[in-house]
Amino acid sequence: MTKRPGDTVVGGSIVRGGALTVRISRVGDDTALAGVMRLVSEAQASRSPAQLLADRAAAILFYVALGAALVTLVVWALLRPEDPAFVLERVVTVLVIACPHALGLAIPLVVQLTTAIGARRGILVRSREALETARSVDVVLFDKTGTLTEGRPVLRGIAVAPGADEADALGLAAAVERRSEHPLARAIEAAALERKVRVPRSSGFRALEGRGAEATIDGRVVAVAGPRVATERGILLDPELVHASRELGADGATLVHVLDGDRVVAVLALGDAVRPESADAVAGLHRAGMRVAMLTGDAHRVADAVAARLGIDEVNAEVLPGQKADVVARLQSAGAKVAMVGDGVNDAPALARADVGIAIGAGTDVAIASAGVVLASDDPRAVLDTVALSRAAYRKMQQNLAWATGYNVLGIPLAAGVLAGVGFVMPPAVGAAVMSVSTIVVALNAQLLRARFAQSGGHFWPPRRRQR
């Protein structure tokens, strides 16, 4: 981004070339970073944390067990007042069989296994609630740059004027950009190196402020600059180049002219490379029953081109850093549960605001601190793993809780002596054994999650479509 005298710069910005003298005008709570952190805090405070399923079940079981024991005590005290030992035995058996070992393992064991499985797949869980919520996400909102794209420009295409040679034009552009530190210059140099074109020597390098650069090559002044330079110099493009430029720019690429003296000999199309895995990630999320949205600070033309290529449902372009959390809030106000996927400081407020914040790849410390799930890789398909892991873990939690609940629904009445009239009375020792068996069943069922992971094969496992 070009800056001129008097412009505002953000602390931590990198100067790609030349020297810069800045005056510090804001410190402490007035800095841009402090403002981002305030947004993060506000977003975090606006979220009302849901009570974990295990806590709810444990509270219910406590009252059920206590109530069952009291009812057993009262009933048998009235029926057999002459046999206090029998009454005490029934109460003890109820309390033993209602011991929450199975319920105590039902959730924590699944959580521990899920955390271990996720770590093996590069999914680092910072918040249990975030992972649990991921199963019911309606919209996955991706930041574009560095998440769906690689965050670095590449040469997408080149068109040359009649009589010009493509390799020679690219070599001239690389020779000019050799001394530049601009990301577009690095992309041109990389393309020349990859295509093994001859790059001539250059001298007299000069940066064209905010427009490009030029240098002398074999006595000729060659410039690599945006279309505005040709317009300022009154240079007209050949009709063939005009038509080719429209085609090159149709997908949102940035167009750069190569000027050899007073003629535009080539037009280079440069753009941020879309990750090859991004299309698979979007398609997989669609198959899992979720909408996919994207937000970016780029122009609508660039954003729409990326969205069309990947099949994204909704595009939010030209979004300022402070407005990203507002996009999340707007989706939530429409009744959607939102997972935000990003990697930068500017994504932190949106990550905190979302129902599930996912920091992807080598994200910034602020982004990681704001996310509930951190992905170790840059591969956006890892979001699919997160959803699949969440849904599989939730199913295991439901199964374990159903078993623990069913066991107590059946076991507590038997322990209380409801079948005493037909001669069946459960001794406390049998109640303890049954309680132990229920614990083993819960543990084995949780281990099936690990077995599924071992048998899934490949690196990614498709999440099942959520039942609505």
TrEMBL record:
<comment type="similarity">
    <text>Belongs to the cation transport ATPase (P-type) (TC 3.A.3) family. Type IB subfamily.</text>
</comment>
<keyword id="KW-1278">Translocase</keyword>
<keyword id="KW-1003">Cell membrane</keyword>
<protein>
    <recommendedName>
        <fullName>Heavy metal translocating P-type ATPase</fullName>
    </recommendedName>
</protein>
<feature type="transmembrane region" description="Helical">
    <location>
        <begin position="430"/>
        <end position="449"/>
    </location>
</feature>
<dbReference type="InterPro" id="IPR027256">
    <property type="entry name" value="P-typ_ATPase_IB"/>
</dbReference>
<keyword id="KW-1133">Transmembrane helix</keyword>
<dbReference type="InterPro" id="IPR023299">
    <property type="entry name" value="ATPase_P-typ_cyto_dom_N"/>
</dbReference>
<dbReference type="InterPro" id="IPR036412">
    <property type="entry name" value="HAD-like_sf"/>
</dbReference>
<keyword id="KW-0812">Transmembrane</keyword>
<dbReference type="InterPro" id="IPR001757">
    <property type="entry name" value="P_typ_ATPase"/>
</dbReference>
<dbReference type="InterPro" id="IPR023214">
    <property type="entry name" value="HAD_sf"/>
</dbReference>
<dbReference type="Pfam" id="PF00702">
    <property type="entry name" value="Hydrolase"/>
</dbReference>
<keyword id="KW-0479">Metal-binding</keyword>
<feature type="transmembrane region" description="Helical">
    <location>
        <begin position="401"/>
        <end position="424"/>
    </location>
</feature>
<feature type="transmembrane region" description="Helical">
    <location>
        <begin position="57"/>
        <end position="79"/>
    </location>
</feature>
<dbReference type="InterPro" id="IPR018303">
    <property type="entry name" value="ATPase_P-typ_P_site"/>
</dbReference>
<feature type="transmembrane region" description="Helical">
    <location>
        <begin position="91"/>
        <end position="111"/>
    </location>
</feature>
<dbReference type="InterPro" id="IPR044492">
    <property type="entry name" value="P_typ_ATPase_HD_dom"/>
</dbReference>
<keyword id="KW-0067">ATP-binding</keyword>
<keyword id="KW-0547">Nucleotide-binding</keyword>
<keyword id="KW-0472">Membrane</keyword>
<dbReference type="InterPro" id="IPR023298">
    <property type="entry name" value="ATPase_P-typ_TM_dom_sf"/>
</dbReference>
